Amino acid sequence: MLYISAAILSYAVCSVGANANALGFAFMTEAQLAEKTAYYGQEYMDIISGYFSHGYMLPLLAITAFAGGALGGLLGKAVLKKHFAKSGWSNWQRLP
Fold this sequence. Notes:
Number of helices: 5
Largest sheet: none
Oligomer: single chain
Helix content: over 70%
Distance between the termini: 7 Å
Radius of gyration: 20 Å
Number of strands: 0
Mean pLDDT: 84
Structural class: mainly alpha
Strand content: under 5%
Shape: elongated
């Protein structure tokens, strides 16, 4: 059914949005970097800044979050299908 595929797709997209806190580190200005260095320490900020100095890290984060969300949605579909079929609450035989 189309509505289940749309639900899995929307769950995958929401999983990408959950990583929005990484955008602050990816697009940090020098003033923000100095402020966070004073708070967290130089060693920590060197490690975090090192991750986002590579151009591939942000797209890789988005792709893996989307894939993980899609796999989680498919796993959830399988678990709920089994659960509702056992309880008799729904006719899950029609689902693909």
